[in-house]
């Protein structure tokens, strides 16, 4: 790339790309803050639901429910449902690939039904001929509580009808600003141990009356608890996606800076070579003129 104009155009192109990457970084940061804020606003409600389920188990330790594991049984017959949360697009490092890798592993272990959130995941399932519910169409962008409730209602109905025996969610947890971890969590059925009372929690001093019955109260709370977990998983995944995208843009900017530094060196070298060539040509021309003048003067003297 010795042509100076070509190098200059390449440098301008890299600068323009950097502007786009910086804009994408800022957009991702804004989306992540908004999603976290909305999750924090709803978290107290779902924490209260979880605490009430704990209260049920403290009142009745032998309660039975179709949403609880049968005593001594873990390998339930029937298909397992996996709610797979991916992004709607790429440019997020290994965020999507990590989730897909976990899906491929689980698909070999048990009869499975996959419900995919995010256009990236649906495209992957289609391209690799993996079975999934094609009528289950939900975006991963800007997760909302209403979307989580709709997803919950769909999966909850399948579980209640006996079409599926377990429900798992595969999502990405934001460990830190530079690290994400794919998690697989069972949300139905659950163990009593999932709602163990902590040592620092206050004991019940007065008995509670549950109407119409303790099992019915528990059953009515399960769907809300499930919606809260799915909403949290959607937001965690969305925040992980934005963090991964921010890190990818940072890495891309570092690579762009290295490329620009190399291009500047090449540009300066080419420019210096051009200047040296021009000086050499001028000097050679001046010498040629001087020699020509000298020959004319010698010729004039001889005449």
Proportion of residues in β-strands: 5-15%
The first-level CATH class name of the largest domain: Alpha Beta
**CATH fold assignment of the largest domain:** Pyruvate Kinase, Chain: A, domain 1
- Helix share, percent: 55-70%
**CATH homologous superfamily of the largest domain - what is it?**
ATP synthase, F1 complex, gamma subunit
Count of distinct structural domains: 2
Poorly predicted ranges (pLDDT <50, ≥5 residues)?
none
**Alpha-beta classification:** alpha/beta
Q: Count the helices. How many?
A: 5
| Major sheet description | 4 strands, mixed
Description of the structure:
By secondary structure, the chain is of the alpha/beta class. The protein has two domains: 4-15 and 254-302, no CATH class; 28-253, 3-Layer(aba) Sandwich (Pyruvate Kinase, Chain: A, domain 1), CATH 3.40.1380.10. It is built from five helices and four strands, in the order H-E-H-E-H-H-E-E-H. It has helices spanning 4-59, 95-107, 119-127, 145-161, 214-302; strands at residues 79-85, 112-117, 164-176, 179-188. It has a four-stranded mixed β-sheet, sandwiched between helices. A hairpin with a 2-residue loop joins strand 3 (164-176) and strand 4.
Map the helices and strands.
Blueprint: H1 4-59, E1 79-85, H2 95-107, E2 112-117, H3 119-127, H4 145-161, E3 164-176, E4 179-188, H5 214-302
Parallel strand pairs: 1-2, 1-3
Antiparallel strand pairs: 3-4
Helix pairs in contact: 1-5, 4-5
């Amino acid at each position: 790339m010795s042509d100076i104009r070509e190098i200059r155009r390449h440098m301008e192109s890299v600068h323009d790309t950097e502007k786009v990457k910086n804009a994408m970084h800022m957009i991702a940061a804004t989306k992540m803050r908004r999603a976290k804020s909305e999750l924090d606003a709803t978290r107290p409600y779902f924490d209260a639901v979880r605490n009430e389920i704990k209260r049920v188990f403290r009142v009745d330790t032998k309660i039975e429910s179709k949403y609880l594991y049968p005593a001594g049984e873990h390998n339930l017959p029937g298909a397992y449902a996996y709610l797979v949360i991916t992004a709607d697009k790429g440019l997020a490092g290994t965020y999507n690939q990590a989730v897909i890798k976990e899906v491929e592993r689980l698909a070999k272990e048990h009869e499975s039904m996959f419900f995919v959130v995010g256009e990236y995941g649906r495209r992957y399932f289609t391209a690799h001929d993996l079975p999934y519910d094609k009528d289950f169409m939900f975006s991963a962008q800007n997760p909302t509580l209403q979307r989580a409730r709709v997803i919950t209602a769909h999966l909850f109905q399948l579980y209640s009808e006996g079409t599926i025996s377990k429900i798992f969610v595969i999502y990405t947890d934001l460990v830190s600003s530079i690290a994400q971890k794919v998690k697989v969590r069972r949300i139905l059925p659950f163990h009593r141990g999932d709602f163990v009372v902590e040592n620092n929690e206050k004991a019940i001093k007065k008995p509670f009356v549950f109407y119409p019955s303790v099992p019915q109260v528990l059953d009515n709370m399960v769907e809300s608890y499930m919606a809260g977990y799915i909403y949290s998983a959607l937001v965690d995944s969305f925040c992980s996606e934005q963090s991964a995208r921010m890190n990818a843009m940072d890495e891309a900017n570092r690579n762009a800076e290295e490329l620009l530094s190399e291009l500047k060196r090449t540009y300066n070298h080419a420019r210096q070579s051009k200047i040296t060539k021009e000086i050499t040509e001028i000097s050679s021309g001046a010498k040629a003129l001087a020699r020509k003048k000298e020959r004319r003067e010698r010729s004039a003297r001889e005449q």
